Amino acid sequence: MRQNRQLDFLKFRKLFPVFSFESFSVEIFQTTIVFKFNFNISDTYFFKPELIYHVPPRYQNQIDGRNGEWDLLAFNLGLAELVSYWKITCSPQVVIKAGFLTDENIQWWKNLYYNGLGEFFYLNNITCSIADFMDISSTCTALKPNSAFSNFSQRVLVPVGGGKDSVVTLELLKRAGLDAIPFIVNPRGASAQCALRAGFNEEDVFNVSRKLDPLMLKLNNEGYLNGHTPFSALLAFATLPAAAITGARHIALSNEASANESTVPGLNVNHQYSKTIDFENDFRHYVKTNFVTDFNYFSFLRPLNELQIASRFSGFPDHHEVFRSCNVGSKSDSWCGKCPKCLFTAVMLAPFLGVNRVHQLVGHPLLDDISLMPLLYELTGKAPTKPFECVGTVSEVLAAVQYIATKGEKADLVNAFLADFQIEPSPDEFNRLLAEVNSNHNLPAVFENLLQ
């Protein structure tokens, strides 16, 4: 539901006109690297977030004696973290004191912040343009050229979130004999278990602890501006120090073709902006311009749609009991059974695993639950907007719903929905999507062949 927050937006901008990125520091220990940042809002609120890299034993000798090599990476990691704190007051002036940005880089970051905050602006009913929502200036001299990357190998760093997508990527790369490294930010049960079920040991996994400043959460509770930020963009920058440590030339994300569809039809508002091919292309350019040219950031699943990913995931039964895709239940590592992510996951997997098996896995009879009809309307494009969640396209969901109805299983929600809109059960669109190929991707041939 959209809120009437335009007046709050203007009020906070007037009260807190300046956001500044004051400084960063890098602390290197025997087994960890700690990146610390100092932000402040108009000398009133001060924030000190951290990211702690827990280096796997086999790579710990790669961090000794490398003081000073991480500054440029740390600075840019801070720029990615900045947006989560800036949104509290949306201060019109952003002053970068911790490093230097060229005019091209300033425009790059403005583009990321503006598009990545599309949902935040939309739901808070904030009207602004990319030209006037913030002005970025940098007052520091340029940092030393990056020297953190060296001795690249064909290793593949694989961010793992605990859902079906990263499971497919991890399993396919490992079964192909590639040297894959699971990479997890703030590990939870599902993400850790997915790595273990894929045959990795705990010591194989590269974990990062992201520590938010508690003052941000306090201000959110007090009514300051709040909303969605582009976490996948932070994740992209968070992979760079890990790649420098492990020598991984490749970063293989698990973002599918479906992420490119706008959440609000007709508007440039996409909950998944930092998972789109547009961001992927922009990030690849930024890395090659500012860090290292011999580097490959791409989404391994970009050629696939959600149904194709669900089909592949259904072939990895060891993961079926441990994967989780519910954001509501993420802290307890559970399925809530009431949110768009739970319903979407059930709709995607039911054609391959069957309705009863899906209900067993999530612990809720989702496809029999008529109370979820409003969510199904949103997922199938029968409502003004899709859910603000990482879900597939409306055509994928509708095709899966039509296909489920052809199997003769008890699925009261599915049957009632089709009756509402006088839609006939059919496998046609489902089969067409299973054969579809998205050619707009950045996969090298060796990775593309693994999907075929």
Descriptive account of the structure:
The chain is 39% helix and 15% strand. It is of the alpha/beta class. β7 (153-159), α5 (164-175) and β8 (180-185) form a beta-alpha-beta unit. α5 (164-175) packs across α10 and α11 crosses α14 (394-405).
Shape field: globular
Round the Cα radius of gyration to an integer and report it: 22 Å
Tell me the major beta sheet: 11 strands, mixed
SSE order, one letter for each helix or strand: HEEEEHEHHEEHEHEHHEHEHHHHHHHH
Task: Give a quick rundown of the structure.
With 452 residues, the chain is α/β, with parallel strands linked by helices.
Name the features:
eleven-stranded mixed β-sheet; 452 residues; 39% helix; alpha/beta; globular
Helix-strand layout with pairing:
Blueprint: H1 6-15, E1 18-28, E2 32-41, E3 45-47, E4 50-54, H2 71-86, E5 93-96, H3 103-116, H4 118-123, E6 135-138, E7 153-159, H5 164-175, E8 180-185, H6 189-197, E9 206-211, H7 214-221, H8 231-246, E10 248-253, H9 277-290, E11 296-299, H10 306-313, H11 340-353, H12 355-362, H13 373-379, H14 394-405, H15 412-420, H16 428-434, H17 445-451
Parallel strand pairs: 1-5, 5-6, 7-8, 7-10, 8-9, 10-11
Antiparallel strand pairs: 1-2, 2-3, 2-4, 4-9
Helix pairs in contact: 2-8, 5-10, 10-11, 11-12, 11-14, 14-16
